[in-house]
Design goal:
Strand content: 15-25%
Distance between the termini: 25 Å
Helix content: 55-70%
Largest sheet: 6 strands, antiparallel
Shape: elongated
Oligomer: single chain
Mean pLDDT: 82
Length: about 350
């Protein structure tokens, strides 16, 4: 920080202090609101008080990840708004420093906030799952079995079975059918049981394989043990547990969406949630570019104007995102367009404001 100028260090201190206050305080308020709304329902369901409050603590990272861009916006707007009220903007411009040069440190920090938000989203996927389990909103992720399951693997094979156990990895009454390929036999496998012996490897026990050719002829082979190379997914994946977007990392979200698409499930708004995991962190730099020129439109205005700008922008962004998410879920527009539309709108407005701002 010593290599930075006096003005840069001053701006960074003001920005970081406001950012930390916002990125902790705003999500904390959101958690308290959620607690006030859900407390009575959870008590009625018999959730222990310890699990209620611990669950809300686990909810905090998810709220922080969602409102991270709001923290960047608050920090940018209040830093510049405060400098305007204290006539510091006038002094800076009188010293020959342009508005664009002044906001460079803030834009760098907003850019750093993008990967930080990605990391926070990954952490929130774990904590949200724990919150859901503690408060009885979903079955524990340690549930060990499922009956009458079906699973479509990436290899094109479809599997059904009577029972599957997470630990030990074991399936009973397994039936698999391969994809139809012109000029090749279509394979089916029936096995009394199957064991998950190591990552990526299932062994079938006591069964038969069937090869059906285009002419209708069937070739049958029996086996005692068979290594199945077309099925590499672990038992937990094959159990097809219903998951919410906030419970999944980016990689898990992509795999989950692909799995549902293979099984023919209608995704709805879920297909917008995946690109949103990229769009929301990128919003950190976009809202900073948007808020900076807005904050200096009336340099002598009070703190109320800065608060109005920050809250209004946050509300419009979140509301617009939810509206576009619903539209994308109905296939009216593409999921990618729905997820990134608010970023595009705010970026376009930001560019116009930055060109019009008095430097």
């Amino acid at each position: 920080m010593k290599s930075l100028g006096v003005l840069d260090r001053y701006v960074l201190r003001q920005w970081i202090a406001t950012f930390l206050l916002s990125v902790i305080g705003v999500p904390a308020m959101a958690v308290l609101i959620d607690l006030s709304e859900q407390f009575g329902h959870m008590v009625d369901r018999g959730v222990p008080l310890r699990d209620i409050f611990l669950g809300e603590a686990y909810l905090f990272p998810a709220k922080m990840a969602m409102l991270f861009p709001a923290g960047v916006l608050f920090a940018t707007v209040f830093t510049l708004n405060g400098m305007g009220r204290r006539n510091e903007l006038t002094a800076v411009k009188a010293g020959g420093i342009s508005f664009y040069r002044l906001i460079v440190p803030m834009m760098i920090l907003a850019l750093v906030a993008v990967p930080a938000n990605f990391g926070l989203q990954e952490l929130a996927s774990y904590t949200t799952t724990r919150q859901q389990e503690l408060q009885g909103l979903k079955a524990s992720s340690n549930a060990t079995e499922r009956s009458n399951f079906a699973f479509a693997s990436p290899s094109g094979w479809t599997w059904v079975g009577k029972e599957i156990y997470r630990s030990p990895g074991r399936a009973l009454g397994l039936l698999g059918e391969g994809p139809a390929q012109p000029g090749h036999p279509r394979w089916s496998i029936m096995a009394d049981s199957a064991s998950w012996v190591r990552p990526g490897k299932w062994i079938m026990h006591g069964g038969s394989t069937y090869a059906v050719v285009d002419s209708g002829d069937v070739a049958t082979f029996t086996f005692r043990h068979l290594v199945q190379r077309t099925l590499t997914q672990p038992p937990a994946t094959m159990m097809n547990e219903e998951k919410k977007p906030e419970e999944l990392t980016i990689g898990e979200m992509k795999a989950y969406v692909d799995q549902l698409q293979r099984s023919g499930t209608r995704l709805g708004m879920l297909k917008v949630d995946y690109p949103l995991k990229y769009a929301i962190p990128v919003a950190c730099i976009i809202v900073a570019l948007f808020g900076a020129p807005l904050a200096v439109t009336n340099p002598r205005a009070g703190a109320a104007l800065g608060l109005a700008i920050a809250l209004g922008t946050t509300l419009v962004y979140l509301t617009g995102t939810q509206i576009m998410k619903a539209i994308g879920g109905k296939d009216i527009v593409s999921p990618i367009f729905a997820a990134w539309s608010m970023n595009v709108v705010f970026l376009a407005i930001a560019i116009v404001l930055l060109f019009r701002v008095r430097t």
